[in-house]
Amino acid sequence: MASMKVSLVLFMCLFCVILPCLKAGADSDNSTIAVFDPVLKEREHQAEVAALQAYQPNPEAVADDLLKDVETELEGTNTTRRHLGHKYKGPCTATNPIDRCWRCNSEWSKNRRQLAGCVKGFGHRTRGGKRGPIYVVTDSSDDDMANPKPGTLRHAVIQTGPLWIIFKHSMTIKLNKELLVTSHKTIDGRGANVHIAHGAGITLQFVQNVIIHGLHIHDIVSVGGGLIRDSLDHIGLRTQSDGDGISVFGSSHIWLDHLSMWNCYDGLIDVIQGSTAVTISNCHFTHHNDVMLFGASDMFDGDKIMQITVAFNHFGKGLIQRMPRCRHGFFHVVNNDYTHWLMYAIGGSSHPTIISQGNRYVAPPNPAAKEITNRNYATEDVWMTWQWRSEGDLLENGAYFRESGVPRTGSEFSRHDMMKAKPGTFVRRLTRFAGSLGCKVGKEC
After folding, report:
1. Residue 383 pLDDT more than 70?
2. Strand partners for 357
3. Left (φ > 0), alpha (ψ -120 to 50) or beta: where does 42 sit?
4. In this predicted model, what pLDDT tens digit does every residue of 106-160 receive, in sequence order?
5. For 4, 114, 361, 378, which has the most beta carbons within 10 A of its beta carbon?
6. What does the pLDDT look like over 291-337, one tens digit per residue?
């Protein structure tokens, strides 16, 4: 009889944990939330309201604005040499409109917050921790998930209000559990060589206004769940993490810039569950299978508000597919350098709009992998209605982009949301400093 009572108690405990988990799973994909308590429900609601406010009803105008900025930046420049992969020793040359905003100022460390005004594309309203104080990370440890130690990155990202987070010195941080970042934060790796590696990744869930800049993120693994503090006034029970480098979940006004990313357990960057107003720029991606996932489920039409700019990135050695893989939303892929893929570069399902402008696509030697695009779970009569357009792309080594939908006749977005691309012949110049820069205080980057 006693054993039956113990069994009943254990069953009820498991039921109380599993039922909320199932409910969360029904409402959202890969949330890693074990108990969807009232605090998280309220955050979810606030995040949905913020995402709807961030949504641009005329996204093409946003894209066209970015293209105009690119054209202005390239006037008067003539170099096409890439210095990615080895140290550049020449004078500072800002080769795209985002970098021109701050990079060649030797006093950047005295005005770090200037960076917040440099973002282009759909994330152009992102300000991160611009209005908050500086927080200096001095300790690379990550030992206490419930009560993070002051001076650690985990302690910094759970603070209330805007915060500009920098690092006292170079360090490698092995996260024991996923790092849950609160709203209005900038993680700024400039001036130090900072690696997030060999542990869990970074999660932006139900938050707004976050900038992540200048980090190396690699060798991320899936780790077990548990109680993790996600703010000063809340600890939540989490399930096992997916192993993404960066996961953006139900969030808006996000800017990921000058990151070097490789070899994560799941994706390098996932943007899902109705996230919008996102810019991913100046990053260097290598040695990975599923690079970027935008929208996790064909059944979740909340991703129709998703609007993402992918600009000035280098998709390099050892990549296989998903650069990105898109669902439902509007995706502006502009002036990126695709030098490697094994299966395909850009894919999607569920009627996404993909505008590819001024990219360089270098196809692999495999004759069966020359096509840039890949459409999933739809017959040709269906996917031919999806608007996937290639404009000014440079196609090399037999690469080809299978277009669909009606040609664009004009732009409905503002000039801030949709950049104007230069032709693909300019891409090596625009992406020559992709990845973490290795900036030193007192010197131009």
Report:
1. yes
2. 334, 391
3. alpha
4. 999 999 999 999 999 999 999 999 999 999 999 999 999 999 999 999 999 999 9
5. 361
6. 999 999 999 999 999 999 999 999 999 999 999 999 999 999 999 99
Backbone Cα Rg of the chain: 22
Identify how many contiguous H helices and E strands the chain contains and give both numbers.
7, 31
Helix (H) or strand (E) segment spanning residue 234: strand 234-238
Is 292:325 a contact under the CB 8 Å cutoff? yes
Closest of 337, 296, 298 to residue 319, by C-alpha: 337
322 belongs to the catalytic site: yes
- CA separation, residue 330 to residues 61, 168, 257, 342 (Å): 12, 39, 20, 25
CA quadruple 293, 206, 217, 322: dihedral, nearest 10: 0
Tell me the CA distances in angstroms from 7 to 4, 10, 18, 21, 22, one per residue in order: 5, 5, 16, 21, 22
Tokens at residue 70, please?
A: 């690119």
**DSSP state for residue 119 in the 8-state scheme:** -
Residue 126 to residues 89, 252, 280, 404, Cα–Cα distance (Å)? 32, 9, 12, 32
Torsion angle, alpha carbons of 387, 280, 198, 143, to 10: -120
Structure tokens at 289: 């299978």
Tokens of 149: 């130690």
Q: DSSP readout, 241-290?
A: ----SEEEES-EEEEEES-EEE--SS-SEEEETT-EEEEEES-EEESEEE
- What are the structure tokens assigned to 400, written together? 């080809």
Q: Which amino acid is located at 139 in the chain? A: D
Q: What gap in Å lies between CA 399 and CA 345, rounded to an integer?
A: 10
Run of H or E residues at 281: strand 276-281
All residues at 6 or more sequence positions from 262 whose CB lies less than 8 Å from its CB, including other chains: 218, 219, 268, 285, 286, 287, 288, 318
- Cβ-in-10-Å burial (0-12, 13-18, 19+) of 289 comes to middle
The two tokens of residue 166 are 């920098």
Straight-line distance from the first to the last Cα atom of the chain, in angstroms, rounded to the nearest whole number: 72
The pTM score is: 0.89
Is beta strand 208-213 parallel, antiparallel or unpaired with respect to 252-257? parallel
Whether 429 contacts 77, CB under 8 Å: yes
280 in Cβ contact with 306 (< 8 Å): no
pLDDT at 413 over 70: no
d(CA 25, CA 156): 29
For residue 168, the tally of other CB atoms under 10 A from its CB is 12
Closest to 242 measured CA to CA, from 210, 205, 213, 211: 205
Structural contact between residues 122 and 417, judged by C-beta atoms closer than 8 angstroms? yes
Cα(5)–Cα(11) distance, integer angstroms: 10
Residue 129, φ and ψ in degrees, nearest 5: -95, 30
β-pairing verdict for 234-238 and 226-231: antiparallel
